[in-house]
């Protein structure tokens, strides 16, 4: 669902939380979800991210004025049209700060880093400032509840040997989220997505 369709019946917010990302294809997500099956059953208390929301963040822009978002569309569309999509695979697992469970990314990582650098340059050229965080390619899978410092590490160890099949991302996604707005689950909506040049046909 497009972001505009999700909010068309409500007053538009003055800001939107934005990031730019790649999304694994359904087959790659299904492989990893199957490997996580025992963990889903054993750790229902984890705050599991929805499989359909799994993504690899290339640039996190944070909270932007809503009227700044259209500035991003032309340069990102042009960038996607000129670039091939990197060949990637989901691989291994680990944790951030004992509570955040992630799956790693393998494959053409140099190409992935070049793509992220070009995306960030395009954003800066739009006059949009954001915090420059080092690229650490991963999918965030779940978060443990406060005080639980063992579950994420246990799950990560269980899927440490996972390696999925290679895949190529189809599109570059500009995504809006409701993170930080209330206690409900985080939801993501594509503001827009553009097909990479080698997949346009």
What does this structure look like?
- This protein has 201 residues and is an alpha+beta fold.
- The protein is built from six helices and nine strands; from the N terminus they run H-E-H-H-E-E-H-E-E-H-E-H-E-E-E.
- It is 28% helix and 30% strand.
- The model has no long low-confidence stretch (mean pLDDT 90).
List keywords for this structure.
alpha+beta; 9 strands; 201 residues; 6 helices; five-stranded antiparallel sheet; globular; four-stranded antiparallel sheet
| Alpha-beta content class | alpha+beta
Strand order of the largest sheet: 2-6-5-4-7
Q: SSE order, as H and E?
A: HEHHEEHEEHEHEEE
* Tally of individual helices: 6
Q: Catalogue the unreliable spans.
A: none
Coarse shape:
globular
Mean pLDDT over the full residue set: 90
For the biggest sheet, the summary is: 5 strands, antiparallel
First CA to last CA: what distance? 23 Å
Gyration radius (Cα, Å) is 17 Å
Fraction of residues in helix: 25-40%
Residue fraction in strands: 25-35%
What is the count of β-strands? 9
């Amino acid at each position: 669902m497009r972001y505009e369709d999700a909010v068309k019946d409500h007053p538009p917010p003055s800001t939107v939380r934005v990031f730019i990302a790649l999304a694994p294809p359904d087959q790659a997500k299904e492989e990893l979800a199957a490997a996580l099956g025992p963990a889903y059953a054993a750790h229902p208390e984890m705050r599991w991210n929805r499989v359909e929301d799994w993504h690899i963040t290339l640039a996190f822009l944070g909270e932007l004025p809503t009227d700044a978002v259209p500035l991003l569309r032309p340069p990102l569309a042009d960038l996607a049209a000129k670039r091939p999509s990197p060949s990637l695979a989901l691989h291994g697992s680990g944790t951030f700060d004992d509570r955040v469970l992630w799956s790693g990314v393998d494959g053409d990582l140099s190409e992935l880093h070049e793509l992220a650098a070009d995306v960030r340059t395009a954003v800066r050229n739009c006059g949009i400032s954001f915090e420059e965080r080092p690229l650490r390619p991963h999918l965030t899978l779940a978060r443990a509840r406060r005080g639980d410092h063992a579950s994420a590490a246990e799950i990560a160890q269980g899927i440490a040997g996972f390696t999925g099949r290679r895949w190529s991302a189809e599109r570059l996604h500009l995504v809006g989220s409701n993170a930080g707005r209330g206690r409900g689950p985080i939801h993501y909506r594509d503001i827009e997505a553009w097909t990479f040049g080698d997949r346009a046909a």
